[in-house]
Amino acid sequence: MSDAAKTLSKIREIVVISGKGGTGKTSLAASFAYLAGQSAIADCDVDAANLHLVLKPKVRERHEFRCGHEAVIRDEDCIGCGECLKNCRFGAITVREQGEGKGGGGRFSVDPIVCEGCGVCVHFCPVQAIDFPECLCGEWMVSDTRCGPMVHAQLGVAAENSGKLVSLVRQKARQLAEERGLSLLIVDGPPGIGCPVIASVTGASLVIVVSEPTVSGEHDLERALVLTRHFAIPSLVCVNKWDLNPQMTERIEHKAQLAGAQIAGRIRYDLGVIKAQLEACTVVETETVAAQDICQIWQCVMNFKR
Q: Domain 69-133 falls in which CATH fold?
């Protein structure tokens, strides 16, 4: 094994996820980053990134994220034969003007929202009048924060391939950790159990699943644990705002243990969390009961052994 591979294998990657949005996942991930002292940080919630709101990163690098392709018809070369319209199975080709194209045919255009980038129209165009450029889907950034270097991204409006962008963010964050000799990578993952979440947790050292004491929280936790169990990733569970429904909290923790997860702790409902958000700081930078709970959970995470 090369020295670089050995270094990467020593990096402990902790991913914070939740079955749905709004459970406090980002607040917990930000607090972990602060408690870690200096670690690499990755915001993998690229569809709705918000970790930057509390870590206030100073961007030092910006990079385009290009993925997939989009068909574009060149009017000056199109002969209006309609082959693209005939062969498109997604309804992305529209007739803009009848009989106004070169050679007496119509003028056609591609709806970029509907186009799936399959390339069939490009293949069947008899005069090669359709370009097939790579799509600009968003951007990813490398920043400095008070808690360490951070890689984060923003997916463009209506852009797809967020799973690929998540993988890119994780890869760059691990490279950053390697370059700076950091042994810990804190990842704020996306909510749900879809492709972006799979891209966030695959190969991680440990996953923290944040739940809340509601029926939907119980259901979403079960789905998240099925995912982590499928990929054989050790999981810890914490219940946020547990004191709003202690009975449901106990039920959730029982189900989590049956699913093979360990309980990291509980976080009390605390209006101080809102105050911390308004001040653009992490919860553990304030003197609140929730901060005490998060510190205890962090100790559980640091002491966890598979």
A: Alpha-Beta Plaits (3.30.70)
Residues in CB range of 75: below 8 A, 6 or more apart: 101, 107
CA separation for the pair 76, 290 (Å, rounded): 64
Cβ–Cβ < 8 Å for 64, 131: no
Sequence-ordered list of residues with C-beta below 8 angstroms from that of 74, at least 6 positions apart, any chain: 129, 130, 131
CA trace torsion 278, 152, 157, 118 (10° rounding): -160
156 DSSP 8-state letter: P
Mean pLDDT, 10 residues at a time, over the chain (306 residues)? Answer: 51 94 93 96 93 95 93 92 94 79 71 91 96 93 97 86 91 96 96 93 96 95 95 96 97 96 97 93 95 97 87
> Per the CATH hierarchy, to which homologous superfamily does domain 3-59+138-303 belong?
P-loop containing nucleotide triphosphate hydrolases (3.40.50.300)
Residues of the chain with CATH 3.30.70.20: 69-133
